[in-house]
């Protein structure tokens, strides 16, 4: 019985066992032990094809087909060495793969929330009139400039931002205080200042769309964060283009990757840059202002082109041009003109609201200059007080500064002169504003997280808050004021 079984499987087993015999030899070699081939007794099960080291039922002695020594004699030593090397390499790869899999299984799972940062800043102000008509003095940029006001939290903000993915960036900034309310009501409120996403189309993020509530890309100071701005307030002539600087809409931005880095460096180095708003910006937005309802079907359109040059000596210089157009719906209320109560009328579909502006900045290294000027048309109360119509405007500012770094910190003394003649479209009845103002001050940063600014301001501005029947218009106010601001960054 055994013999017949042996003869029946001999042809198949012989062809299959040649590589098996060779493998046994190689394993012996890799194990570092010389095992004499003739001393190794192997048996194969004719049904399961398994190899055993002892005889049994249905098992045929391997040496009946081919001795190990015979297999060794037929395989060249060079081939054996090559096979041995391959086996070692395979074993090493398997060990490395197992180690990598173990490391990956033990590593914490990545989450987009890990890339989100939380930061913020706050500004405590003190305004003290020292001469002039401080009772009637008022400024749309700072509600703490008014009679019987001293300390005030001008801004208190927290910024949540970060990359959700390689092509989606989010930015959320609430405002915790925006000035006092009148009467017995308590001042301060919570509102959204920014809530947008940047959707990029390429890995370098040179092309992106910003959608949501964000700054209107116009001019320079509008885009410069209050956290980085040198002077107390933005110039009225520019800021009235977009009061609160923001609106709801979508903007396309483009800038080469190395220029995006340059925009960021101009902020991080303390040179008072705007941050990255692209070389080119093209956008559409509601046009009624931050957190205000849209009142017509007309969208504002805006375009901005700017470029930060870097000279061979390391000096940065930026210049650009901006423009926007649309229709704005003003707000009117009853006033008394010539003893007659009148509610100014206007086209309910909106009035022409457009302007073009230029800006140029020689960054303080150490001496710097900054200027903006713009011209246009915007809704404004007519001289007779009966209508609101689109009327011409123009204005801007010039600012000089000097940056000095020493053992006590960073110092930037400055002087800023501004003028404006035109509409205050965001105020009730869109009054005409006549403004001439000079501010002299110094900013001191003893530490990166602390900033103190002291300034003197000579103001000649229109109080746009109250229509005076006896004047058939708004009061022009002149005053001198000392101002201080402590800012902490976190």
What is shown here, in short?
The protein has 490 residues and is α+β, with helices and mostly antiparallel strands. It contains 5 helices and 22 strands.
Tell me about this structure.
InterPro entries: Porin_dom_sf, Porin_O/P. This is Phosphate-selective porin. Pfam families: Porin_O_P (PF07396). The structure is a single chain. The protein is of the alpha+beta class and 490 residues long. The chain folds into two domains: 2-75, no CATH class; 119-489, Beta Barrel (Porin). Helix content is 17%, strand content 46%. The protein has five helices and 22 strands. The strands form three sheets. It has a 16-stranded antiparallel barrel. The chain is elongated, with a radius of gyration of 39 Å. It starts with a helix and ends with a strand.
Summary keywords:
3-stranded antiparallel sheet, Porin_dom_sf, Porin, Porin_O/P, 2 domains, elongated, 22 strands, 16-stranded antiparallel beta barrel, Phosphate-selective porin
Please write the string of helix (H) and strand (E) elements. HEEEHHEEEEEHEHEEEEEEEEEEEEE
The order of strands across the largest sheet is 4-5-6-7-8-9-10-11-12-15-16-17-19-20-21-22
The rough form would be described as: elongated
Query: What is the mean pLDDT?
Result: 86
Largest sheet: 16 strands, antiparallel, barrel
CATH superfamily of the largest domain: Porin
InterPro entries: Porin_dom_sf, Porin_O/P
Protein name: Phosphate-selective porin
Organism: Candidatus Nitrotoga arctica
């Amino acid at each position: 019985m055994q013999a017949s079984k042996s003869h029946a499987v001999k042809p198949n087993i012989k062809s299959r066992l040649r590589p098996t015999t060779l493998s046994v030899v190689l394993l012996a070699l890799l194990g570092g032990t010389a095992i004499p081939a003739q001393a190794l007794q192997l048996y194969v099960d004719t049904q399961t094809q398994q190899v055993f080291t002892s005889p049994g039922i249905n098992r045929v002695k391997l040496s009946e087909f081919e001795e190990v020594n015979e297999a060794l004699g037929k395989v060249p030593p060079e081939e054996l060495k090559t096979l041995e090397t391959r086996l070692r390499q395979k074993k090493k790869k398997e060990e490395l793969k197992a180690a990598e899999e173990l490391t990956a299984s033990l590593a914490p799972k990545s989450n987009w929330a890990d890339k989100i940062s939380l930061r913020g800043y706050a500004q405590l102000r003190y305004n003290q009139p020292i001469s002039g008509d401080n009772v009637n003095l008022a400024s749309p940029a700072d509600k703490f400039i008014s009679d019987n006001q001293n300390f005030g939290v001008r801004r208190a903000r927290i910024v949540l931002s970060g990359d959700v993915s390689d092509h989606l960036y989010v930015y959320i900034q609430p405002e915790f205080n925006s000035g006092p309310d009148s009467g017995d009501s308590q001042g301060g409120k919570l509102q959204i200042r920014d809530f947008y996403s940047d959707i990029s189309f390429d890995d370098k993020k040179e092309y992106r769309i910003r959608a949501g509530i964000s700054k209107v890309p116009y001019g320079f100071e509008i885009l410069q964060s209050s956290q980085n701005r040198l002077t107390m307030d933005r110039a009225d002539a520019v800021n009235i283009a977009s009061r609160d600087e923001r609106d709801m809409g979508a903007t396309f931005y483009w800038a080469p990757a190395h220029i995006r880095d340059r925009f960021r460096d101009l902020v991080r180095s303390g040179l008072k840059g705007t941050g990255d708003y692209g070389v080119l910006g093209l956008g559409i937005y509601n046009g009624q202002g931050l957190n205000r309802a849209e009142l017509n079907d007309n969208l504002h359109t805006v375009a901005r082109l700017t470029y930060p040059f870097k000279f061979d000596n390391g000096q940065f210089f930026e210049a650009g041009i901006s423009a926007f157009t649309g229709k704005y719906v003003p707000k009117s209320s009853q006033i008394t003109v010539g003893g007659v109560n009148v509610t100014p009328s206007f086209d309910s579909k909106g009035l022409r609201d457009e302007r073009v502006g230029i800006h140029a900045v020689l960054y303080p290294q150490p001496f710097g200059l900054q200027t903006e000027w713009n011209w246009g048309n915007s809704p404004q109360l007519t001289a007779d007080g009966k209508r609101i119509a689109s009327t011409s405007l123009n204005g801007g500012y010039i600012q000089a500064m000097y940056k000095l770094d020493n053992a006590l910190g960073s110092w930037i003394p400055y002087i800023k002169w501004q003028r404006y003649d035109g509409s205050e479209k965001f105020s009730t009845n869109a009054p005409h504003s006549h403004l001439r103002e000079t501010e002299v001050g110094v900013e001191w940063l003893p530490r990166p997280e602390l900033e103190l600014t002291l300034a003197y301001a000579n103001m000649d501005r229109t109080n746009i808050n109250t229509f005076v029947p006896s004047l058939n218009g708004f009061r022009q106010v002149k005053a001198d004021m000392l101002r201080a601001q402590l800012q902490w960054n976190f």
